[in-house]
Write a structure and sequence with these properties.
Elements (H helix, E strand, L loop, with lengths): L1 E5 L6 H12 L2 E4 H15 L6 H10 L2 E3 L4 E3 L2 E2 L7 H11 L2 H15 L4 E5 L2 H5 L5 E6 L2 H14 L6 H17 L12 E4 L5 H15 L7
Parallel strand pairs: 1-6, 1-7, 2-6, 7-8
Antiparallel strand pairs: 3-4, 4-5
Bound molecules: 2'-deoxycytidine-5'-monophosphate.
């Protein structure tokens, strides 16, 4: 069974998807981390962002390893490094590259093959897994999403004005939505879940109930 969770930055997808996967006993795919890892590796190799073929070639052969909470590139733990502001900024060039997207969608399908998976990103229900049994699209108001992101930055000791976080987020949203390939948009058969005013536990409870209602008896065997 494939469960897809898409939505804009700050809608709470990662934490919710990880916890939902844990409760269901499914594998978890963090596809944003894949784009981030490619951006991290491309910057290290000094590749030009407009050399789409070279960046896609790197993506095709990047030795990525995921274990429960870590991501390794060629044996190096990059879990924290890929969350830096610099990598967040550079990832847009990688995410806009249609050749990279094709490579990473193929990788996501290989990783999910024959498994029960909760996968989160922007295009999981539309492009990567259009036949997924259960699709969710998480939303929250822009200000609420910016407030969550601002809080995370505070906890990491990175100080930034809430208004600046909101402005950057608006730019990312616009870029994600107008991307020619794999834009951020709900699949026609996705359930839209508004997370404003809900705790993460309440969101996971809702999603878990919906997945279990939809899952067939053999889905977990
Ligand atoms: O969810 P995130 O912030 O880790 O995503 C990082 C970047 O990758 C963000 O710019 C959106 C992009 N992305 C994408 O284009 N498609 C996905 N399936 C996942 C992430």
């Amino acid at each position: 069974m494939i469960v897809t969770i898409d939505g804009p930055a700050g809608a709470g997808k990662s934490t919710v998807a990880r916890e939902l996967a844990r409760r269901l006993g499914f594998c978890f795919l963090d596809t944003g981390a894949m784009y981030r890892a490619v951006a991290w590796a491309a910057a290290r190799q000094g590749l030009a962002w407009d050399d789409q073929t070279a960046v896609a070639e790197l993506a095709a052969h990047l030795p990525l390893v995921f274990d429960s909470h870590r991501i390794l590139v060629d044996g190096q733990d990059v879990t924290l490094a890929i969350r830096s502001q610099e990598v967040t900024h550079n990832t847009r060039y990688v995410a806009d590259n249609p050749l990279v997207r094709a490579q990473l969608v193929a990788l996501q399908r290989r990783l999910a093959h024959g498994r029960h998976v909760v996968t989160e990103g922007r295009d999981q229900g539309t492009v990567a897994f259009p036949a997924a049994e259960c699709k969710f699209f998480l939303i929250a108001s822009p200000r609420e999403r910016a407030r969550r992101r601002w809080q995370q930055l505070q906890e990491r000791g990175e100080s930034m004005m809430l208004e600046d976080v909101l402005a950057q987020q608006n730019q990312r949203d616009a870029r994600d939505a107008r991307r020619a390939c794999g834009p951020l948009t709900p699949a026609p058969d996705a359930l839209i879940v508004d997370t404003d005013g809900l705790t993460q536990t309440q969101v996971v409870d809702t999603l878990e109930r919906l997945v279990r209602e939809r899952g067939t008896a053999d889905a977990w065997e």
